Amino acid sequence: MAADFREYLRTLREHDELVEISQPVDLRDVAALVAQSERALLFSHVTGYSMPVVSGLLQSRTRLALAMGVAYERIEEKLRRAMDHPIEPQNVREAPVKEVVVTGEKVDLYQLPVPIFSLLDGGPMITGAVVIAEDPEYGMNAGMYRLMLKEKNLTGIDIVTPNNLRKFTERAVAAKRPLPISIAIGTHPYEMVASSFKAALGTNELGYAGGLRGEGLRLAPGETIPVPSIADAEIVLEGEILPEGWVHPEGPFCEFNRLMGGIHYNPNVKIKAILSRRDPIYYALHMPWENIWMSAPIYEAAAWRVLSEAGVTATAVNVTPGGCCHWHIIAAIKKQPGDGKNAILALLSIADIKHVVVTDDDIDIFDPVDVEWAIATRVQADRDVLIVSNARSKPLDPSLPPVQGIPTTAKMGIDATIPENVPRERYQRIVYFNQGKVQLKDYLEKTAGKATIKGDEDPEALAEKIHRALTDSNRFFAELLELFPDTPFDKIARAVGLLHERGQVTQDKDGKYQVKRS
User: Fold this and answer.
1) What DSSP letter does each residue of 397-436 carry, written as one string?
2) Which domain holds residue 135?
3) Do 371 and 466 fall into the same domain?
């Protein structure tokens, strides 16, 4: 069965990651309810509307992994493979999304259960749409954009950030012609993740969706526009970006940075048709976390690629949710001299990335305490902090002063690897004796199987055995405990003490006991 939106919902149900709310719910309450839930929510009865609403589908690493069909830590690998081996879309005539076709004066966007999310939203916002456009020179492009409902057949479209759709629109505006687009709501996450990727101009991101699927994405011809639509979507809006330019106010709206955005001036979109299944499910991508989590594997794939191109061997990459999965990368590497700085320079070259931390591969970069510990114990600021001024910026960075046009930002990298001129022995981690071999639960449940050790060995004889053992090799105290596992702890300690009193043992530079030479 080809992957589609409904198959993904079935997968979530099977893994207890989707809960259906059957009692009536007001559309204005959806966002607040999803924010409280640890699982995705399907609202089957939305007051005043004929179709259900689902939200929170990608709001965790677990759900994103289920969407991609692999463990979370392998998503970026699958995405990189899809990017290296894209499969172009396939055109089909029959499409589930064309079971119902509404055109002309019958188009009424207010029949769709499009919610608001925050107190300051400018109006109902379509948030989870995959938008397809075509340019005579650059071909097909797909991206995810939000659209604010303004009239029953009119929306805005937020394309203030430089991207391929903005380029297409600028060219259409200059030619004084509308730009046809199809707007798919309720697609498989493969399409959403692929279309979120910032591909080079002339690259069709839907080929990446095919690479993720292992087969070409099904596209159906448009009914009122010369642009195809995603055949297996729940709903498709066919429309045209009007050739008026960036003149219409839109917003505010909650952004991926977990803050409210301001008013943006954008083009408007005239909706010419609504296509849908007979029983469509409206997908309200929940802001900001669904947007945030979806970005992580895209930036992680970019990070692995640039580190490989820089000749740095990476062992783990974490695009952190605290950095909104847009601004911060932590990478662990198998370090050769100079690799820490090279890794920083490579990672800071990724668009939007603002702060980078590079660690050795003994650091768990998914544990913020371990990362902070690496920074605290391995960094000298004047040596290990790199700052680059006037780099390209993500316009939604609230720390930047308002400017006309595209702002620039400072980027920073922290080399939290062990310095080349510091002995690695300084970083010997604490490992408890019998760590991993004894379990607290056994003692709490009173099922620890080992009987109390009993020993009546003569201290002199035991001391002699320990002395002979140390003659063979120097040993830590713990190694002596392991050497005599059936001898009580206190007797071993006393025997070592006896040897020390006699001046027969001392410790070497590492702290191991050794025979004291006369």
Assistant:
1) -TTSPP-SS--EEEEEEEEESPPTTS-GGGGPPP--TTTT
2) 73-289
3) no
Mean predicted lDDT score pLDDT of the chain? 89
Whether pLDDT at 118 is above 70 = yes
Provide the token pair at 462. 């035991």
Q: Are 140 and 133 in contact (CB under 8 A)?
A: yes
- Residue 39's alpha-carbon distances to 33, 65, 158, in angstroms, are 11, 14, 29
Same domain assignment for residues 80 and 180: yes
At 383 the three-state DSSP class reads: helix
Instruction: Give the whole-angstrom CA distance, residue 312 versus residue 336.
Output: 8
Last residue in a domain, options 239, 274, 289? 289
**Residues near 308 by Cβ (< 8 Å), separated by ≥ 6?**
314
Query: What CATH number should be reported for the domain holding residue 339?
Result: 3.40.1670.10
Residues 267 and 234 in one domain: yes
Instruction: List pLDDT tens digits, range 274-332.
Output: 999 999 999 998 877 677 767 788 788 889 989 999 999 999 999 888 777 778 999 99
Which residues in 355-380 are b (16+ Cβ under 10 Å) and which e? Answer: bbbbbbbebbbeeeeebeebbeebbe
Q: Cis before residue 252, ω within 30 degrees of 0?
A: yes
Give CA–CA dist 513/500, Å, rounded: 10
Report the distance separating Cα 41 and Cα 250, nearest Å.
Answer: 28
Judge contact between 193 and 297, C-beta under 8 A. Answer: yes
Task: Give pTM, 2 decimals.
Answer: 0.72
Nearest to 327 by CA among 359, 290, 352, 292: 352
DSSP helix, strand, coil percent of the chain (3-state; round to 5): 35, 25, 45
What would the pLDDT profile of 166-179 be if each residue is shown by its tens digit? 999 999 999 999 99
Q: Where are the alpha helices (DSSP H) in 250-386?
A: 289-309, 339-348, 368-378, 381-384
